[in-house]
Amino acid sequence: MSSILVIDDEPGIRSTVKDILEDEGYQVLLAEDGPIGLDILQRESVDLVLLDVWLPRMGGIDVLKAIKSSYVGIEVIVVSGHASIDLAVSAVKLGAFDFIEKPLSIDRLSTAVRNAQSLVKLRAENARLKRTAVEVDDILGVSPLMHEVRTLIEQSAKSDARVLITGDNGTGKELAARRIHELSERSEGPFIAVNCAAIPETLIESELFGHEKGSFTDAVSRRKGKFELAHRGTLFLDEIADMSLSAQAKVLRAIQELRFERLGSEETLESDVRVIAATNKDLREEIAQGRFREDLYFRLNVIPLRMPSLRERREDIALLARVFLDKHANGAARSIEAEAMAILSAHEWPGNVRELKNFIERISVMSDESSLSATTIAHFLNGMGGGYGYAAEPAHEPCELGELLALRLSEAREEFERRYLLHILRKMQYNIAKAAEAMGVYPSNLHAKIKKFGIEAGE
Ligand SMILES: Nc1ncnc2c1ncn2[C@@H]1O[C@H](COP(=O)(O)OP(=O)(O)OP(=O)(O)O)[C@@H](O)[C@H]1O
Ligand SMILES: [Mg+2]
Questions:
Q1: Residues 292, 239: contact at Cβ < 8 Å?
Q2: Does ligand 1 lie within 6 Å of residue 313's CB atom?
Q3: Whose CA is nearest to atom 12 of ligand 1?
Q4: What is the mean pLDDT of residues 269-296?
Q5: What is the band of 265 on the pLDDT scale with cuts at 50, 70, 90?
Q6: Domain positions in the chain
């Protein structure tokens, strides 16, 4: 967690500000002058500084300059008495985020701090998106269908034409969108992904187009929308079918004219954005049901790109499985026996590549066979369907917390429970009454669990 540093020579102000900010849940550090403050910045993770302009030893303006030249990520709010208001104004010109006048008003202080914090957060989020954008995996596959997909991706990367990516869950729609961006002339620009299904209907417009401070109840500060953030880059509208009709109308206009307004603002903004959309729904069906605008569909569907399911290209499964296994091998080369591979290739994989990837990850944690056998694969596939149920006798027992951490919550919980039961049972020499007592459960309950996990005495 990052903290707020308060640099002020008046002890009274330091402790008041500390109390107020701590009440609001921030962590607060204190310094009585500039050099001490700068020293703290070298050691601690701070993302906001409240800086008095009038300071002994080193003036506030010099402290501000020092902060701004060494720490790009830190925002500074300047605090000034009435007499030094000119200094505060020049501080803002030098890059301070805001200034507050003394005597301090609690409201003014908390608003300024909150605004600065949301800017810091937004910036971190953008940096994160940028980072993920450069780590795009190759789109693997030896099947003719995947050759076609790659060719289409390369061709569409050459233009700014809108692409509509369709395909079942986990078929690589997002990966394809990132790849198009990476191969395009916009690759230096941002790749901004918006999951339209994850954003509540009431917030989607502000998310896409931004808002002005106060334009609605939660709009505490001015905020840029994704259309603005994606300037000179690619905007990926994921799960596009899950957007409300009113948001669809706004998106239609925005992508047609590349012009839009922030919520609560009259000013029309322009953005140079390439739009890629994706959905796992059948948009023609959505149109027939009146849930999707036909005109938006035609705008988005300039280049249709369909990601085929694994079932349609079983010849890709072996390659994908090997690559995913290598990624988790940690140096130790592992292979998959021919018979085991045959089982993988014949499997249905309703969750497609994502499911295959998770499955291989799980196996590489749970088994230490150097060449994965058909028995192991069949054993682990057995529990699939409603989540990977845990089979009675696992081929191998994970023994590190780190291994549990690689599992899904439901699996980790089950695995922990099973090992916990085994541990206590062994300790109590399989005396159910004693074990149940040690665990704080009823013996009948313990019996049920033993049955569920297929534990046998002596295990
Ligand atoms: N052809 C491929 N080669 C290598 N990895 C792939 C391939 N296709 C998908 N993946 C991997 O599978 C996972 C799922 O891919 P992605 O998130 O792009 O799918 P999606 O179609 O967007 O899924 P959803 O419909 O659930 O949103 C990712 O980890 C991705 O890297
Ligand atoms: Mg996706």
A1: no
A2: no
A3: 354
A4: 95
A5: confident
A6: 3-127, 136-307, 312-453
What's the CA gap between 350 and 347, in Å, rounded? 9
Tell me the Ramachandran region of residue 384: left when phi exceeds 0, alpha when psi lies from -120 to 50, beta otherwise: beta
- Using alpha carbons only, what angle is made at residue 241 by residues 235 and 145, rounded to the nearest 5 degrees? 75
Q: Is the CB of 147 under 6 A from ligand 1?
A: no
Between CA 393 and CA 340 the distance in angstroms is 19
Residue with tokens 């060719």: 151
Which of the ligands is closest to the CA of residue 193?
2
For the CA of 165, the closest atom of ligand 1 is: 21
Give the whole-angstrom CA distance, residue 362 versus residue 187.
Answer: 33
* 136-307, CATH topology level: Rossmann fold (3.40.50)
Is any atom of ligand 1 closer than 6 Å to the C-beta of 277?
no
- How many of the other CB atoms lie within 10 Å of CB of 215? 16
What is the reported pTM?
0.59
Dihedral angle sign, alpha carbons of residues 201, 204, 205, 210: positive
Nearest 5°: CA angle at 202, between 198 and 205? Answer: 85
What is residue 61's three-state secondary structure?
A: helix
279 lines ligand 1 (CB under 6 A): no
Q: CA 157: distance to chain centroid?
A: 25
Nearest CA to 208 out of 173, 172, 249 is that of: 249
Measured in angstroms, how far is the CA atom of residue 171 from the centroid of ligand 1? 5
Q: Is the pLDDT of residue 67 over 50?
A: yes
Q: Which of 329, 339, 331, 423 is nearest to 368 (CA)?
A: 329
354 C-alpha vs ligand 1 centroid, how far in Å?
6
Q: Is 351 in the pocket of ligand 1 (CB under 6 A)?
A: no
CATH number corresponding to 312-453: 1.10.8.60
Fold of 3-127: Rossmann fold (3.40.50)
Ion ligand 2: protein residues whose beta carbon lies under 5 Å: 174
Burial class of residue 59 (count of CB atoms within 10 Å of its CB; 0-12, 13-18, 19+): middle
User: What mean pLDDT, rounded, does the chain reach?
Assistant: 86
Tell which one of 324, 354, 358 to mutate to probe ligand 1, the residue whose CB is within 8 A of the most ligand atoms.
Answer: 354
Domains 136-307 and 312-453 share a fold: no
